[in-house]
Design brief:
single chain; mainly beta; 22-stranded antiparallel beta barrel; five-stranded mixed beta sheet; 3 helices
Length: 675
């Protein structure tokens, strides 16, 4: 029997119309086949598509896709996630400034950043600079509080308080269209020039590859107001230039959905200035930072008919960093430091369904990391980490229950000084979801997670003339939330509401406070911290009418993160540094056929840059508006996308980190063509 299928899609209608034509041929001779045509045309069938966004119910999760990056005025990964509830992006200003993520006031070290399912690791300082990752090759970014619900994942995915997952584009080509090329350029304020290129190629039915190249140059000079000198002086931010080149390539082999393999190589090189903290009447800064990073990772996934699933991940990485201060006050008159971090990582996961409702898994990760540096009296540390996780997921009726037990084993060695003691810690997690009513889309979720975070190598050994006594952090996370999703038949197409109340109890919290430049931090334990908060999210869109559609999303966060170490201390029950109590992110837009116009607004309340919540340490809040427009059209049968973005629309003067002023109003224009 042979089949011929023809599917006609009309994207301008809320429903998708599919026309299928089938030719049903009976077993006949070749002669009869050559003379007969038994094709039958069936009636047109309308199939309704569900456009309601997916909501993870076990733990809070938020997603943004590549279709929405322009809507949020996003230039890099940090910009794409700044609207998420519970998120605090620490931004040191400028297009090349360091940008890290803190989720629910736990700090950047408690958020695992996954790149296609494998963690980006930096044992030196534990903070992943999200400004290093462009969005041209990103399909989706998701933030999970606690952890993702999937049991088939590396042990490292269970070993953090939250997970930021970056998924790259994968080729979706056919024999009729075996390749696709995208070329684009972005330009704008501060001398920004950003050309990029993407090539997708189908090699055979089972093999394909994708390659990307991205170059960024900006002089980084922008005006800012000098606060505190009693004038309206406008100064120019200097030494904030950046020049970076990033390229990555991935090779995919897919025999079937249950048997696939890929290998990914990523290279990043950047040279940038560190403008440093603003000092009255002394805007000069000369420090430089160079990064030369490369990693290669491979993933193999197989599912057998017995429901046994296997996931194997391998990764090799090398991170080279150079810090240069040509005006350092020492005998040489210069400070030129080089750091080299190498890691070997291996992971294996097995998952199996004991029954259709009950799945179990076991994951084991091993990594060995070595640090080298040409600084005085350096310890030359290395760390071996072994993680084991047993996990289970059970679904029965209206209930879904999931739990896991993580064992963390750490062993460190140093060539100079004294290494920290080996440790082995057990960390349990319990999650549950209940659907109270069969006829309702209301669901109640809760989770408890006990997690362990070891000090980074910088926290233990960087400029440690005497052995540091930085203690590991222990965090107990509690979350209770409600999700409600409704498909509507009136003006609104759907509405999704999520609310989560959480409590984090942190023991021996490690606090990193930047010195006069963002490359050097001071470290200390501040004992115990209580974090209480509420996250609220809303997402909706209207039905498409005559080509028009409206979109709206809003996320609100309240956080009370207080030091509860010593009642006699001046910082007792004070908000910990750089933690605003209230943040609000609002995004609204209108689509009309190929045109989209969007408005993004972020509001953050005031905070303090030390644990003493006194007026002398006050950092004002800010309210920032952005706007963007994107237009898709066809020229010469080739799709073209053009966008125009305005950041800091009202030209507000503000800082996220004290003495690191953010840019005023800026513009960005983008053109992309697809072949």
């Amino acid at each position: 029997m042979r089949h011929k299928s023809s599917i006609i899609l009309n994207n301008s209608l809320p429903a998708i119309k599919c026309v299928l034509v089938l030719a049903c041929l009976q077993p006949i001779s070749y002669k009869t086949f050559a003379q007969s045509d038994t094709t039958k045309k069936l009636k047109e069938v309308t199939v309704k598509a569900n456009t309601t966004p997916k909501v993870q119910t076990l733990t809070p999760a938020q997603q943004v896709t590549n279709k929405d990056f322009t809507r949020y005025n996003a230039f890099n990964v940090a910009d794409a996630v700044r609207n998420f509830s519970g998120v605090n992006i620490k931004d040191y200003g400028g297009i090349g400034g360091l940008k890290t993520i803190s989720v629910r006031s736990l700090g950047a070290n408690h958020t695992a950043v996954l790149f296609d399912g494998i963690q980006l690791n930096d044992a030196q300082n534990g903070q992943i600079d999200l400004s290093k990752f462009n969005l041209n090759n990103v399909q989706e970014i998701a933030l999970y509080n606690g952890q993702p619900a999937n049991l088939l994942q590396p042990a490292r995915s269970f070993a953090s308080a939250s997970v930021l997952s970056i998924k790259t584009l994968q080729p979706a080509l056919t024999a009729q269209k075996p390749y696709q090329i995208q070329a684009g350029v972005k330009g704008g304020s501060f001398g920004l020039v950003n050309p990029y290129l993407q090539w997708q190629q189908r090699i055979s039915k089972q093999w394909s590859f994708i390659a990307n190249a991205n170059y960024v140059y900006a002089n980084g000079r922008y005006k800012y107001k000098v606060d505190g000198d009693g004038s309206d002086t406008l100064a120019i931010r200097r030494n904030g230039d950046v020049k970076s080149f990033q390229t990555d390539a991935a090779l995919y082999w897919t025999k079937s959905d249950s048997n696939k393999f890929n290998i990914h190589v990523n290279y990043y090189n950047s040279k940038r200035g560190l403008p440093g903290a603003v000092i009255f009447y002394n805007p000069y800064a000369s420090q430089r930072l160079e990064n030369n990073d490369i990693f290669a990772q491979a993933t193999y996934e197989h599912t057998w008919q017995s429901s046994l699933r296997l996931l194997v991940n391998t990764k090799l990485s090398q991170l080279k960093t150079r810090y240069l201060d040509p005006d350092f006050l020492n005998q040489e008159g210069v400070l030129d430091q080089h750091y080299n971090q190498k890691e070997v990582y291996q992971s294996a996961v097995l998952a199996y369904h004991l029954t259709p409702d009950w799945e179990v898994s076991y994951a084991a990760d091993a990594s060995y990391l070595k640090m080298d540096a040409d600084i005085y009296n350096y310890a030359y540390p290395s760390r071996f980490t072994l993680l084991n996780v047993l996990a289970t997921n059970f679904t029965k009726g209206r209930w879904q229950l999931q739990g896991n037990l993580l064992q963390t084993n750490l062993n460190e060695m140093v060539e100079k000084g004294v290494a920290s003691k080996s440790s082995s810690v057990l960390s349990p997690t319990l999650m549950a979801t209940l659907k109270p009513f069969d006829s309702s889309n209301l669901q109640v979720r809760a989770f408890y997670k006990n997690i362990f975070r070891a000090p980074t190598l910088d926290e233990l050994y960087f400029y440690a003339i005497v052995p540091r006594t930085i203690k590991p952090e222990f965090v107990k996370q509690y979350d209770l939330g409600i999700t409600w999703t409704k498909n509507l038949n009136n003006l609104l197409e759907y509405i999704t509401l999520t609310t989560d109340a959480y409590y984090n109890n942190v023991s021996n919290k490690i606090l990193a406070v930047p010195n006069k430049n963002p490359a050097i931090f001071s470290f200390s334990n501040i004992g115990k911290v209580d974090i209480k908060g509420i996250d609220v999210g809303l997402k909706t869109q209207t039905k498409q009418q005559n080509g028009w559609r409206g979109l709206l999303s809003a996320n609100y966060t309240y956080q009370q993160a207080t030091d509860v170490t010593d009642p006699a201390s001046s910082t007792y029950q004070n908000q910990i540094p750089y933690t605003p109590k209230n943040t609000l992110a609002l995004n609204a837009g209108v689509n009309y056929k190929q045109l989209g116009v969007y408005y993004n607004h972020i509001l953050s309340s005031s905070r303090y840059y030390t644990g003493n919540n006194e007026p002398d340490y006050y950092v004002p809040g800010y309210s920032i508006s952005d706007a963007s427009a994107v237009y898709n059209f066809i020229t010469g049968k080739l799709p073209v996308m053009a966008s125009f973005e305005v950041n800091n629309l009202l030209n507000k003067n503000y800082s996220i980190i004290r003495s690191f002023p953010m840019p005023g109003r800026s513009y960005r224009l983008s053109i992309q063509i697809t072949i």
